UniProtKB/TrEMBL annotation:
GO biological process, one term: response to other organism
Membrane topology: Single-pass type I membrane protein
Location within or outside the cell: Membrane
The protein, known as: Leucine-rich repeat-containing protein
Upper taxonomic lineage: Eukaryota, Viridiplantae, Streptophyta, Embryophyta, Tracheophyta
Organism whose genome encodes this protein: Artemisia annua
Keywords of the record: Glycoprotein, Leucine-rich repeat, Membrane, Repeat, Signal, Transmembrane, Transmembrane helix
């Protein structure tokens, strides 16, 4: 006789019965499974991630995310990183042996169920990285066995209840990145087993670090960063003999760092940056022999850097920048052989860079800029072969740039600007093939740019402006295909800008103003250029129609040269142009109508001190955004009516031309000073001819009448330079 259900017809009938009576299947699963299946029905899973949760199983022990003991009793739910949208379960009372709930990174929403407080065997609750809202229910604090409470990275609001002190078994309290408010309860001091507390990223968490925190004698990690915690660091923190990390950065701490911190001999990481901490750095920090990271930047610390830091031989990172520290850089720092980052920028440190610093052979970042350092850069700095960044700008350093820097073969960024360095730029410097940023501006450097510059194939920014450099630009500069920013301005360079510059295919910023360059407007400029300043040189010839190829150009300054001829109509192709300065040249002919067809011209248009003739093109009506227009010292005729539509003008100079007719009767024109209208004999206001009392020289008058316009230009240029300085390495 065949066994039951072996007949295909019988089997089909059986499954039809199961399908027709779904509740019959529940008889096969225990009460634990029923509770879990009931929760599953409330979820909105985008994929069938809980497919294994099958009512035909006698127990849920083989279901995904479920763990049981040897008696088939559910002990853990682990549904980490599954897409199970819905709310947390409220009906798991039948899971009497449940000791762990991990439902993190699952897109759950809703509030924390009060029923969680009924699962008395729980040791771990991890519902982190969801979209949980509401407050922390007080019932949770009935869980006497709870060791880990991870509620971080949600949208939980409200206070940290004082009942938290009842969780005497708690080891890990993770509340960071929520919307909690109020103060840290003093009852936190009752948690003698607590090892980790992280409540950072709650902007409205305020009050002080409670003195009672010192009773948490097993604490290893204290994290209260990016909160509104204020007041002083309590001296009781020195009782935390096991503490390894203190992170209370970007908060509102004030007062001094307590000397007692030196008792935390297990401390490895001290992060107190971006607060309002005052007073000196305690010498007791020298007792922290295991300290690896000391980040105290952007506070109000004063006094010297203690010599005792040299005893912290495990230090890897020191950042004391943006304080008011004084005195010398301690020689003892040279004993920190594991040190990789030393950042002392923006203080009031004096003295020289100690020779002993070059013993820190693991150093990768050395930043001492914006101080009052004097003396020379140590020749032995070449020993720092791991160094990738050296910033010493804005000091009073003297002497020459040591050629030994070429031994720092990993160097990527060097900034020695705003010092009193003299001598030449060592040609060996340009053997550094990893160099991306070389800033030597505002020194007293002389000599040439060596042809070896072509070796720096990764160079991105080169600024040597405001020195006494001379000679020509080497043609090898065209090998720098990654070059983005080139500033050679205010030097004594001569000759022509090499045609090879076309090889700098990523060049966006070119400033060579105030030199002695000759020749014409280079026809092979890279089309990537956005900013070009060639003013105050000896450039001649006409403006090539190839200027129209520079379609990314936003600012072009060719003023104070000897250009001649007409402005090519191709200028219209520079459709992103915001500023154009062609003043003090020998341009002639009519002003091309194409200038009026560049609606992006909004900062300034300067055509002064040339030989333009004809009338203002009617197309100028399209310059509706223009703020400054200077047409002075030309031979332009006609009326000014076309300019009445330029509603954004704040500066207009049309003096010393041949304009005629009545001055437009608008508030802007009525308020123009006579100096900006003078020298137009046929121009009149209500019957009165506008004539100058006495004629100034063209150079002096142009300077006087364009002050407001230049103010706009300088302000905009400085903003542009500032942006590039601080956003590009």
């Amino acid at each position: 006789m065949p066994p039951p259900l072996s007949n295909p017809i019988t089997t089909t009938i059986f499954f039809l019965i199961i399908i027709s009576f779904p509740y019959t299947s529940h008889a096969l699963i225990d009460t634990q499974g029923l509770a879990l299946l009931s929760w599953k029905t409330t979820l909105n899973t985008s994929t069938n991630v809980l497919k294994s949760w099958n009512a035909l199983d006698p127990t849920p022990c083989n279901w995904v995310g479920i763990q049981c003991n040897s008696n088939a009793q559910v002990t853990a739910i682990n549904l980490n990183s599954l897409d199970i949208q819905g709310e947390l379960p409220r009906n798991l009372q039948s899971l009497e042996f449940l000791n762990s709930i991990t439902i993190s990174s699952t897109n759950l929403s809703g509030s924390i169920p009060r029923e969680f407080g009924e699962y008395l065997e729980l040791k771990l609750i991890d519902i982190s990285d969801n979209m949980i809202t509401g407050s922390i229910p007080s019932e949770i604090f009935n869980l006497a066995k709870l060791e880990t409470l991870a509620l971080n990275t949600n949208m939980i609001k409200g206070f940290i209840p004082s009942e938290i002190g009842k969780l005497t078994s708690l080891k890990n309290l993770l509340l960071f990145d929520n919307q909690l408010e109020g103060e840290i309860p003093k009852s936190i001091g009752s948690l003698a087993s607590l090892e980790v507390i992280r409540a950072g990223g709650n902007k409205d968490l305020k009050g002080v670090v409670p003195e009672e925190i010192g009773n948490c004698s097993n604490l290893v990690m204290l994290g209260l960063a990016e909160t509104s915690i204020s007041g002083v660091i309590p001296a009781s923190i020195g009782k935390l003999k096991k503490i390894q990390t203190i992170a209370i950065y970007t908060s509102l701490l004030s007062g001094p760092i307590p000397d007692d911190l030196g008792n935390c001999t297990e401390l490895r990481n001290l992060y107190l940056y971006q607060n309002s901490i005052t007073g000196p750095i305690p010498r007791s920090l020298g007792e922290l022999k295991k300290l690896e990271s000391l980040l105290l930047w952007q506070n109000g610390l004063v006094g010297p850097i203690p010599d005792e830091l040299g005893k912290c031989t495990e230090l890897v990172t020191i950042d004391l920048s943006e304080n008011s520290l004084t005195g010398n850089i301690p020689v003892s720092i040279g004993g920190l052989l594991k040190l990789q980052e030393l950042q002392l920028s923006v203080n009031q440190l004096t003295g020289s860079i100690p020779l002993e610093i070059t013993n820190c052979v693991a150093l990768t970042h050395f930043e001492v800029d914006n101080n009052l350092l004097t003396g020379e850069i140590p020749v032995s700095i070449g020993k720092l072969s791991s160094m990738t960044l050296f910033f010493a700008w804005q000091n009073n350093l003297t002497g020459s740039i040591p050629s030994s820097l070429s031994q720092c073969e990993n160097l990527q960024a060097l900034d020695l600007s705003y010092n009193q360095l003299s001598g030449t730029i060592p040609s060996q410097m340009f053997l550094l093939q990893n160099l991306t940023k070389l800033l030597l501006l505002s020194n007293d450097l002389s000599g040439f740019i060596p042809s070896e510059i072509g070796n720096c194939v990764n160079l991105y920014r080169l600024r040597v402006n405001d020195n006494r450099l001379s000679g020509t630009i080497p043609s090898e500069i065209g090998k720098l295909k990654n070059l983005n920013f080139l500033d050679l301005s205010n030097n004594k360079f001569v000759g022509m800008i090499p045609k090879s510059i076309s090889g700098c295919v990523n060049l966006e910023f070119l400033d060579v103003h105030s030199n002695g360059f000759t020749g014409g407007f280079t026809e092979t400029f890279p089309t990537s250029l956005q900013f070009v300043d060639m003013s105050d040189n000896r450039l001649t010839g006409s403006l090539s129609p190839n200027v129209g190829l520079l379609t990314e150009l936003t600012k072009l300054n060719l003023g104070k040269n000897q250009f001649s001829g007409e402005i090519p109509p191709a200028i219209r192709s520079c459709s992103k142009l915001q500023m154009l300065d062609l003043g003090k040249n020998g341009f002639s002919g009519q002003i091309p109508k194409q200038l009026g067809q560049i609606p992006s011209l909004e900062i300034a248009l300067n055509l002064s001190c040339n030989q333009f003739t004809g009338e203002i093109p009617p197309e100028f009506i399209g310059l509706s955004k223009l703020a400054s227009l200077d047409l002075s010292y030309n031979k332009i005729t006609g009326k000014l009516d076309v300019l009445t539509n330029l509603q954004n003008l704040v500066s207009l100079n049309v003096s010393y031309n041949d304009f005629k007719g009545e001055l437009p009767n608008t508030p802007f024109f009525r308020n123009l000073p006579n100096s900006d209208l003078a020298g137009n004999r046929a121009l009149y206001v209500s019957g009165a001819v506008v004539t100058p009392a006495d004629k100034m020289g063209s150079t002096g008058h142009a300077r006087s009448s364009a002050r407001l316009a230049m103010s706009i230009l300088v302000s905009t240029a400085m903003e542009y330079l500032s942006y590039l300085e601080f956003t590009q390495l």
